[in-house]
Specification:
GO terms for molecular function: nucleic acid binding; RNA-directed DNA polymerase activity; RNA-DNA hybrid ribonuclease activity. Keywords: Endonuclease, Hydrolase, Nuclease, Nucleotidyltransferase, RNA-directed DNA polymerase, Transferase. This is Reverse transcriptase. InterPro entries: DNA/RNA_pol_sf, Retrovirus_Pol_polyprotein, RNaseH-like_sf, RNaseH_domain, RNaseH_sf, RT_RNaseH. Pfam families: RT_RNaseH (PF17917), RVT_3 (PF13456). This protein is of the alpha/beta class and 323 residues long. The chain folds into 2 domains: 148 residues, Ubiquitin-like (UB roll), CATH 3.10.20.370; 132 residues, 2-Layer Sandwich (Nucleotidyltransferase, domain 5), CATH 3.30.420.10. It has 11 helices and 11 strands. It has a 6-stranded mixed sheet with strand order 10-9-6-7-8-11, with helices on both faces. Strands 3-2-1-4-5 form a 5-stranded mixed sheet. The longest helix is centred in the first third of the chain and has 15 residues.
Amino acid sequence: MAKEAFETLKLKITSTPLLRHPDCTKPFVIIPHANPWTACAVLRQEHEGIIQPVRFTGRVLNEFELRYHIAEKEVLAILRVLEQFRQLIYGSEIPIVIYTRYSILKWLLRSNSADGRHLKWGLELWKWTLELRRVLRDEDELAAILGAGITPRKHLDEVAENLIPPKGRIKAPPPISVEMLDSDFEGYVLSFDGAAKVSTRLGSCGCNLWRLPRWHVLSAHGFPLDDVTVNDASITGLELAVDHGFRDVVVVGDSRIVTQQAQGLIGCHQPNLQRRLAEYEALAVKFGSVRLVHVKRDYNQAADYLTTKTLALGKAWVVEDAD
């Protein structure tokens, strides 16, 4: 019985193709996958009613790409497929089908405001005839397995979570980052806040720059903004810190969502917020270190005051007397 089972298993393993030969008369399918350290994808085609793998590809992200949002990392995986297998898929009149969980691809193809790396990616994607299909979850465990194979050993358990079927799993709450500054901390702190009027779509942000441990106010500004988000407040504050020549800064705000999105602890799915997050990351690399700390609103009253007064004034202003 054991020998018969072994022979059956051997037959199935040797008869099942790992990779199918590409057929240029059929549409190619790209299914990307990314984790914090790698960008991977599987190029597939339908054979015998099943979408089967044709090619695999993946790579480790560099130190700058590690800061990207997970949706941007999946774009890197897609661009790698288009580059690595260009000779195989280029010239086909049949659209290439891409399964994706994020809307950033559609934004890259349609946006008139993309800049930096997003503009470069959009121009490259424009060269291809693509058909985007939105999915709710990672559709390709093969790509996830490929990513796990090139992931640092200490993080394998985290990546393995992506391979567990979601059915029956209890949805875990988003992680909470709890940080405190030591009483003798010496350095620079940026506190920020933002607000908006729904009726007018006008908003404001307030930014304070402090030097610790004496909490000496270096700068306190209020800025009016159009259609503001709290992300704009953090970006404006970092620009102030850059102007002051700070090398290291602690960023304090009462928006848990903004803080955890910047830390990469939770996702950022709206294209507008993804662009803001990319702007934050571009500013963050100008510092030696940026430490993010979430506080309760009660402890962010200085920035909240600047924001509220700016919204009432409708113009920019600066605190002249720090006392």
